[in-house]
Amino acid sequence: MINSSIHDLKIIPLKVIEDDRGAVLHMLRRDSEVYSDFGELYFSETKPKIIKAWKCNSKLTQLLAVPKGRIRLVIFDDRLDSNSKGKLQILEVGRPDAYQLIKIPPKLWYGFKCVSREPALIANCTNGVHSPGNSKTKKRDDN
Q: Distance (Å, rounded) from C-alpha 45 to C-alpha 66?
């Protein structure tokens, strides 16, 4: 596990098994320390230089991995009861050298930008089913 400046944010290197035929990319196992429950799994594709920000889910924990391409992921903690309130963490996630699982707990704001030449594919596994009433968004230049 990689240290994070934000309370409860987890960064876990993931296993890649490669040979001349391609690769197997691990993401999540039920016996992982960050797994809690399964709600849904979806994929988000982001084109090069495109920014998708800001989003905050009030109830769901999100487990993100980037099996194709690369993103710059920015996470901000404005939780009133957090000992890391006001902290910002910036990560570059994706292949070939930063294939990681990012656990984003509820109430953290996050956004990302595709920084690879090809579109980035983000896998998002949540511990519950998404409900529009449980998430907030802000424009990317909002303070």
A: 10
What pTM, to 2 d.p., does this model score?
Answer: 0.93
The Cα–Cα gap between 32 and 78 comes to 27
Residue 33 has pLDDT above 80, yes or no: yes
pLDDT greater than 70 at residue 107: yes
**Euclidean distance between CA atoms 52 and 124, whole angstroms:** 14
The C-alpha atoms of residue 93 and residue 64 are separated, in whole angstroms, by: 9
Q: How confident is the model at residue 32 (pLDDT cuts 50, 70, 90)?
A: very high
Q: Pick from 109, 107, 104: which is nearest to 93 by CA?
A: 104
DSSP 8-state class, residue 2: B
